[in-house]
């Protein structure tokens, strides 16, 4: 699965192409392509599911720190605290005449290039040039040997 994950992530942008070229061919190469496509599809599904799960996940305390006059209404009038949180909103009834059920602030995230070379997920192709790599939004470090030099950044949540 790890291998699958890495390969598919590396091919993220190109994952549609192999599907088109595998028609009416049953060579071992074509079958390998099929596997790759399946692999990419399952990873895509996983990513989609985790995104969905994140949408349902309750907002953090930090995300709910919105000054009362900047709150935008979420849910319907008279919604209970429990219902409000269930639909992913923040509830705070301490200030009258402002929305009590309101939208959370978006999560603050930051892109970082992972330090451990052995956790790198390949983002390029062998011999990719630094500029080409960074233009794809990926990290480039030309060392050490035996690991991808062009690799995906990681997204970390900022502290509040
Ligand atoms: C509710 O909002 C008020 C005003 O912004 C804030 O002072 C208070 O800490 C909040 N309560 C909770 C439980 O977050």
Automatic annotation (TrEMBL):
InterPro entries registered for this protein in UniProt: P_trefoil_chordata, P_trefoil_CS, P_trefoil_dom, P_trefoil_dom_sf
Residues of the P-type domain: 60-105, 111-154
Nuclease is among the record's keywords: no
Coarse class of the protein's main subcellular location: secreted
Subcellular location per the Swiss-Prot or TrEMBL entry: Secreted
Coiled coil: none
Any single biological process term in GO: maintenance of gastrointestinal epithelium
Stored CDD domains: Trefoil
Segments of this protein annotated with the region Disordered: 1-25
Keywords, alphabetical: Disulfide bond, Secreted
Superkingdom of the organism of origin: Eukaryota
GO cellular component: extracellular space
Disulfide bond entries: 74-89, 84-101, 113-139, 123-138, 133-150
Identification of the protein by name: Trefoil factor 1-like
Native organism: Cyanistes caeruleus
